[in-house]
Write a structure and sequence with these properties.
three-stranded mixed β-sheet; globular; four-stranded parallel β-sheet; 15% strand; 7 strands
């Protein structure tokens, strides 16, 4: 939603400007990281200059470590947000993917560039062109996430952020 995008952008800017903040952790609510964009909004003209791509670039450019705590699902733009983070921790039951292709769209927030850089072209092409959901254990083997946990993902992300 526009509200979520604005909150993410504002939070990142505040964290970057605050010298007492040493790292940032991004998580979702209610056991889900993010299901991505609401496709009903694709037919609406661009509003208020808020777009996901520049916000992900802001995450990527942060001088402070940014850790994604992935629970539930990270699909489409949600996975693209996680790809912009410096580190990713996923709950063992998490699922990730870029399902846009199943409705005839390509990922629109540079996931097609970030994913191959992270896991290599062959694996990225499979994920991008099939739209399949990747379980956390496979994501770990591919290098898509840095760690898989069975307990509190948010706490694990905070611990990693403190380490780095």
């Amino acid at each position: 939603s526009l509200r979520a995008l604005q909150a993410l952008e504002d939070g990142l800017k505040r964290a970057d400007a605050d010298p007492s903040v040493k790292a940032v952790m991004i998580c979702g609510e209610n056991g889900k990281f993010s299901a991505g964009a609401d496709i009903r909004g694709f037919s609406v003209p661009k509003r208020q200059g808020i777009a996901l791509g520049p916000i992900i670039s802001l995450i990527e450019r942060s001088e402070k470590p940014v850790v994604a705590a992935i629970e539930g699902i990270a699909l489409g733009g949600g996975l693209e947000v996680a790809l912009g983070c410096h580190y990713r921790i996923a709950h063992v039951k998490a699922q990730m993917g870029l399902p846009e292709v199943t409705i005839g769209l390509l990922p629109g927030a540079e996931g097609t560039q970030r994913l191959p850089r992270l896991i290599g072209v062959p694996a990225a092409l499979d994920i991008i062109t099939t739209g399949r959901h990747i379980p956390a254990t496979e994501a770990l083997k591919l290098g898509l996430v840095d760690e898989v946990v069975e307990e509190n993902t948010v706490e694990a992300a905070i611990c990693l952020a403190k380490k780095v």
